[in-house]
Amino acid sequence: QLQASGGGLVQAGGSLRLSCATSGRTFSNYALGWFRQGPGKEREFVTAISGSGGSTSYADSVKGRFTISRDNAKNTLYLQMNKLTPEDTAVYYCAARRHYPRVVFTSTIDYAYWGQGTLVTVSS
């Protein structure tokens, strides 16, 4: 089970850090990702990280602003979001799947497990 948290209301240009915690699993056995779904939009890829944390991938729209990381000792995934814009407004979901070494997964269909989502609202 994945539990996302950290969403909220922030002004444009601000920052937020999302967290996604889990329990009952060997965390490092799972590749992880963040996706988001804005109003009236389909769920889209944001960023992903391999099981070890050594490989990452970012959507072009967030490169240079967002950073994904994981702490396998704490069973927690993070998403640091800086320089937020109103276009980043969405429900953010964390997702997990069994990992393959050094592989990151960027499609929703790749993931078997999903958190409940946390809402991020960026005001202009």
Written overview of the protein:
This protein has about 120 residues and is mainly beta. Helix content is about 0%, strand content about 50%. The protein has no helices and eleven strands. The protein has strands at about 1-5, 10, 15-20, 30-35, 45-50, 55-60, 65-70, 75-80, 90-100, 115, 120-124. Strands 2, 4, 5, 6, 9, 10 and 11 form a seven-stranded mixed beta sheet that branches. Strands 1-3-8-7 form a four-stranded antiparallel beta sheet, with no helix packed on it. Strand 7 (about 65-70) and strand 8 (about 75-80) form a beta hairpin. The radius of gyration is 13 Å and the shape is globular. It starts with a strand and ends with a strand.
Key terms for this structure?
four-stranded antiparallel sheet; 124 residues; globular
End-to-end gap? 34 Å
Integer-rounded radius of gyration: 13 Å
Average pLDDT taken over every residue: 95
Query: Outline, from the CA principal axes?
Result: globular
Biggest beta sheet summary: 7 strands, mixed
What is shown here, in short?
0% of the residues lie in helices and 49% in strands.
SSE layout and pairing:
Blueprint: E1 2-5, E2 8-11, E3 16-22, E4 30-37, E5 44-49, E6 56-58, E7 66-71, E8 76-81, E9 90-98, E10 113-114, E11 118-123
